[in-house]
Amino acid sequence: MTATDFHNGPSACPGCDATAMATSRAAGTAQDGDRTTTLSLPSIHCAACISTVERGLLAVPGVSSVRVNLTRKRAVVHAAPTVAEDALTSALAALGYDAQLLDEATLTAGQSDTAARDLLMRLGVAGFAMMNVMLLSVAVWSGASDATRDLFHWVSAAIALPTILFSSKPFYVNAWRALRVARLNMDVPITLAIFLAAGMSLFEVAHSGDHAYFDAALSLTFFLLAGRYLDQRTRTVARSAATELAALEAPTALLLDDDTPKTVPVDELSVGDLVLVRPGARMPVDGEIVSGASELDRAFLTGESDPVSAAVGDPVRAGEVNLTGPLHVRVSAVGADTMLHALADLVAVAEEAKSRYNSLADRAAGIYAPAVHLLAFAAFVMWLYLTGGDIRYALNIAVATLIITCPCALGLAVPAVSTVASGALFRHGMLVKHATALERLAEVDAVVFDKTGTLTLGAPELLHGDTIPDLDMALAAKLALASEHPRSRAIAQAAARRTLPEVEVTEIRETPGFGISGQWQGQRVALGRADWVGAEGSGTMLNVEGRGSVAFDFEDALRPGVEPLLQTLEKQGLPVTILSGDTEAHVKRFAGALGLSNWHAGVLPEQKADILTEMAQSGRKVLMVGDGLNDTAALALAHVSIAPASALDAARVAADMVLVAPDVSRIGDAVRIARSARRRILENFGVAACYNAVAIPFAFLGFATPLTAAIAMSTSSIIVSLNALRTR
Amino acid sequence: MNVLAYLIPVSLVLGGLGLLAFWWTLRSDQYDDPEGDSARILRDDYDDYPAETPQSRPKD
């Protein structure tokens, strides 16, 4: 049965019946033949945002329906095929919202909503059954006897048995999987407890016994499913956010076939093909420049913040950004052979090391599962001996022990805390990608930062702009406006903050890779590389014929929140190191301005990895924060790693967490939340241990009744959940 | 004790209705966007007239 059965409206498109219901509740009505576009809206946060975005997009001609999802920070737009996707993003930009197009194919491939929904259904059924059986049990506990009690027990059995078969499926399937390879996991004692309790109770009911544990078996199922659901949801949110990041950059290239550029997926390129790389675009492949001249931004690969000039014959690598002129590139390596993928092996090795990390829950389960089984078995043997061979009585006690010790609180202890913590981190703009990342972050005792693109924005800012004379500034700004080069943009920005005299520059021409020139009052003015404009020195210069030249110095702009972050880390007692591939002069100035004494400049990617390995060997647990390809190996090797959302795909894949917010001070919050989460988890284990210390002797000595089991189980679960809410 | 003959089925049916309602909410994607739904109730967009969706059109 699909969701379309619930309404008679036209489905937006035949392929998306699953989302048809959401569509029908959307603003506007979807038309047949419409195309579905998904937009990522990282900055929406309130009811007014929903209204503004939905109204704004509906105002675009051709758009028939819009539905904003605030939880996922997305909008699903149905529009006529004639509507350009750029029109949607620019409409939103005009309203002040950043919007990015999401690749539909990548999104649907990574969706695991069905698993969460399946768990929710099982949880709902278990909850329904638990309440009904509890209702009947209360009657029994208050003194129903004989035929009435038997009737109540039979009704309970009729509700409980099918429910257990349906709702506890995730547990027994998992337990069976573990047992088949001769291993024990948390699900084995759970399954054993649920099924033994149900089977034993059925036997008791058939023999008109006093005690039936149907309610206990059901509440056990319910509480544990709740833990499992929270766990699943946390991971789904993180994973869908991670696939969303992947969907942001659809890997395509402009293939030059018969001189007309054609957009093709990067996978379809082969060695020897000719591709066009426009200014502002990233190199899709490794290759060699066959025509054109430009400047390349290599920050992602090497950490250098200064652009490098490139001309015919120069090699280019995937991941470099073309800054000024269009380039024709002959492909020399594609896909897995490119530099971009060369570090993939290192990453894979480190990934394996991370998956071997023993989480707190695993360690608890490792002690817990055998202990519970041994205890229950000991109770069985002891009572068998004490009663002189009364199997039924001994088994009753063993089942009671198993139920009462069963890890209700333990099953909720970790998921409840990590749900609260991940939620808090999500609100702070952090995505937790890896299941054990939070725990590892809590253990961190040193922090290593990359510079370019991580602590800085990777975009230049004009230095000492105020000392440049008004006329020169006005001329430079006029020229700069004609170019998309990051330095030109920085000049234009700085000029916009000043009141400058009006100047008229004509015949403005950009020479890719060199600079911009024009005519002012019959004189040649040029802004660009020193040797090209005809001036002494190096760097970017403005030269005006008959007036001399002025140097423009640039510095990589700081990311917002760097200073508060460093203060927070100092307060938390975490020493900070900077590993940068940038030149010594840049790094020194940068570190000096921030008061950091521990920095390394000109570090190669392999050296970064070596330094990280060294630190790990000396017993340090390092948090690595980086964004470039040169950081990828280090990110994978670190105890835990964070990449900004602007990072290269490979770096985001290697990192355990992704910082979506532009403000890096959130990293300090993340460490605080992770530490708080770890404390709460340990407290929860403490609660579970105390509870068991009291409950086990009770059950072992045969004092446990279904009533005490129900009370003890619910109380410990509630205490643990409430304690989880204190994570902040 | 004859009252049990009514009350037990009644309680089961009521519980079943709750379960059915839950099943419906689950099938109709009502847990997709909890944050958005809690924000949407505060908008005044459709205070004067309902949205033109297939669901809210007059039934007759």
Would you write up a description of this structure?
The complex is a heterodimer of chains A (728) and B (60). Chain A has 26 helices and 27 strands. Chain A has 728 residues and is of the alpha+beta class. Chain A has five domains: 100 residues, Alpha-Beta Plaits, CATH 3.30.70.100; 139 residues; 93 residues, Calcium-transporting ATPase, cytoplasmic transduction domain A (Distorted Sandwich), CATH 2.70.150.10; 140 residues, Rossmann fold (3-Layer(aba) Sandwich); 98 residues, 3-Layer(aba) Sandwich (Calcium-transporting ATPase, cytoplasmic domain N), CATH 3.40.1110.10. In chain A, the strands form five sheets. Chain A has a seven-stranded mixed β-sheet with strand order 15-27-26-25-16-23-24, with helices on both faces. In chain A, strand 6 and strand 7 form a beta hairpin. The longest helix of chain A has 35 residues. The radius of gyration of chain A is 32 Å and the shape is elongated. The two termini of chain A are 42 Å apart. The N terminus of chain A is likely disordered. Chain B is mainly alpha-helical. Chain B has a domain of 38 residues. In chain B, 53% of the residues lie in helices and 0% in strands. Chain B is built from two helices and no strands. The longest helix of chain B is centred in the first third of the chain and has 25 residues. Chain B is elongated and about 55 Å long. The C terminus of chain B is likely disordered.
